[in-house]
Amino acid sequence: MTDGQFYKIFGILTVGIIIIAIIIAILANVFASYSFHPSNQYKTEIENSEQIRTEPEGKINLASNPTIKQEAPIVVASSGPISGKDIYNNVCMSCHTSGAAGAPMIGNSSQWTDRLSKGKDTLYANAINGIGVMPAKGGLSSLTDEEVRAAVDYLLDESN
Ligand code: HEC
After folding, report:
1. How far apart are CA 146 and CA 127, in angstroms?
2. Torsion angle of alpha carbons 34, 36, 42, 43, nearest 10°?
3. pLDDT tens-digit profile of 112-145?
4. Residue of the nearest CA to atom 43 in ligand 1?
5. Is 96 near ligand 1, meaning CB less than 6 Å away?
6. Ligand 1 centroid vs 159 CA: distance in angstroms?
């Protein structure tokens, strides 16, 4: 073999090896993008759902997540009528125990004498329909009139 022939064959082999290397590199890239991208997406999906599951309840936007139903407030969940005391404690207490927004306070009889002189039926009606700052049924419209009356009775009994 002459020097000339050797360099020719050597050159061809070198170019061939480089071309093969380039092809391998291209294939590796193609496969990498096929196999890594979907699994990366999958990973973020898992992380996202994990985050949703572990996030404190108040931070989740429930409206945008149809799989999570907002827990019904305790008062609504039960079927039969609930005691006036339970309703008071769940719905009315926030205002009528602290006197917030000028609400007549439970246990403070002097704040109730004037109101009682209007007659109990007026008090019931005002608690059901709302009066001044107080929203109808204390803001929980799913209460029945009966339940609101029971809560008023409890409120008045405790305020004698
Ligand atoms: C958001 C605060 C708030 C909540 C919750 C609330 N109240 Fe009141 N309530 C008030 C305020 C303020 C008044 C005084 C309104 C006025 O006289 O202008 C009032 C007045 C009343 C009165 C007297 C009405 C009258 O005619 O003088 C009754 C009875 C009453 N509330 C019952 C209830 C009951 C029962 C609940 C729960 C189901 C409740 N309230 C929940 C704020 C509240």
Report:
1. 11
2. 180
3. 999 999 999 999 999 999 999 999 999 999 999 9
4. 134
5. yes
6. 14
